[in-house]
Amino acid sequence: MKPNTKYAKSGEVNIAYQVFGSGAIDLVYIPGWISNIDLMWACPELVNFLNELGKIARVILFDKRGTGLSDRVLGFPTLEERMDDIRAVMDAVNSEKAVLFGHSEGGSVSALFAATYPNRTISLIAFGIFAKRIYSPNYPWAPTNEERQKVYDMIEKSWGSGDMNLESLAPSKANDKVFMDWLANYFRSGASPSAALTLTKMNTQVDIIDILGSIKVPTLILQRTNDIDVKIEEGRFIAERIQGAKLVELEGNDHLFWAGNTQEVLEEMKSFILNVRPKLVYEKQLFTIIVGRLISLEANSASLRKHINACVKRFSGNAVQYNEETFTVTFNGPSKAVLCSIDLVEMIHSLNGKLNIGIHIRECYADHCISKETENLATSILKQSQPNQVLLTQTVKNLLIGVNLNFAIFNTIFDVVSGDSILLFTVSKKHKPNKLLNGVENDKIVQYDSFLEIVVQVINKNLSNEEFGVVSLCQDIGVSERQLQRKLKEITQKSPNQLISSIRLNHAKELLLSTSYTISEIAFKTGFSNPSYFSKCFKKEFSINPSDLKLKQ
User: Fold this and answer.
1) Which residue ranges in the chain fall short of pLDDT 50?
2) How many angstroms separate the CA atoms of 30 and 105, rounded?
3) Which one of 50, 218, 473, 525 has the fewest beta carbons within 10 angstroms of its own beta carbon?
4) Which domains does the chain have, with CATH numbers?
5) How far lies 273's CA from each of 99, 109, 468, in Å?
6) Alpha carbon distance 159, 153 (integer Å)
7) Which residues form the HTH araC/xylS-type domain (predicted)?
8) pLDDT digit string (tens) for 397-440?
9) How far is CA 98 from CA 59, 113, 243, in A?
10) Parallel/antiparallel/unpaired status of strands 246-250 and 219-224
């Protein structure tokens, strides 16, 4: 029997949800791409699966904003809004803690929720999950831009029909006309063609790789070995990066968990849910941290603090900690942190002052998340920024899906604690879109931004390899030298060799400023076999000898 549909308020958005089951433990099902909680009950296979879960848990279903019975929204729903929806539904049914069961793209937001709100998460179960939805050298199983474009075209031309190749989601049901008709109807009832396209483009931007290590709750990853939508390598990649995660590789090629060997899936889930022993309290969780440096204004002015505190409160930020020239704020999500930062810069500018802000995301102790370690990284970011500029790390940028912002690659810094090079971006509010921007179509700008990130990742991976050059770069990213030359010139106004050299020298600068390595050691670490040639290139790039910069420290 279909449960009653109710609505929870998530801000101003109505989120449709249902509750059923007799178990003592709560389980929230976070659906994938598109859902309709009423139409779920028209599929016998899915109904049987849900009823079996209801024997061991109180099951909570909901349609994410923009889909099914929930309110339609303009633009992309952000990951933060998606997390807010989960919390709103849990609050509406008085669920303090729950097992999160995320399917496909729903697994991505479930993973972020588990890292951000571990004390509201009993455990995490993910089926057919992916960490990224566009190809890159560190995640080669994802589709390319061209392959994703084919999906966009298919949605626009054939939404909800057999031409969408729905059989690829459930090959074992390909000849079951009743099931396939239901599936097409399910998708049509879940979203309009434009909404489906918007959600698909949002999925393309998903990148939760950097936060996987912050998930500490018990985790079960279920993946079918021949799933063509999400490759088995993706499940292995994710499980390796989540501490203590259990990966179960199931036979079959269905992407839908309620098709194929569903009994095996149920048994694995039941065993995990009933036998897991989570911590009562998690001391650490994921925080987004901003550090601002005030210029030309008294940081300790009572009226200025009042203005800053009001802005932080408006974006649901946590307590502000003030120092002599800087202040630090923490947020439970990146989009609120970034939007608050942009408003703070504008506010300080209106008061005839200047402000620069650095933003990063880290796993921290909940009771004292502002530590020396987190401040040091933010301060390193601040050193790079100019007045009235907001800089953020790539990890933060990757989680800003759906936020109406512009990003531009800025520089790299060296994190002494992790030993990694960190790519920084400038961020600004997006103006009303035009068909053409500087003669380049908007869609192409998005593609070029993705292309440039891939190029920078490959270069950073090979910083110490003196043999690495344009030929190697072309081989790693799969383009010709001519294509590489043309694209980089159009995006950065630099040749491939100039970009490689610039990234190496900026990394060298960070090593000079933050480590005790000798100049020769730094030269070798950044791909220069000749220290004197390194010094010559360094002076040309920064107008200062590396030895002189070292003396200033």
Assistant:
1) 432-449
2) 9
3) 525
4) 5-275 (3.40.50.1820), 283-429 (3.30.70.1230), 454-552 (1.10.10.60)
5) 8, 20, 49
6) 10
7) 453-552
8) 989 887 878 888 888 877 665 667 788 899 988 754 433 333 33
9) 9, 11, 19
10) parallel
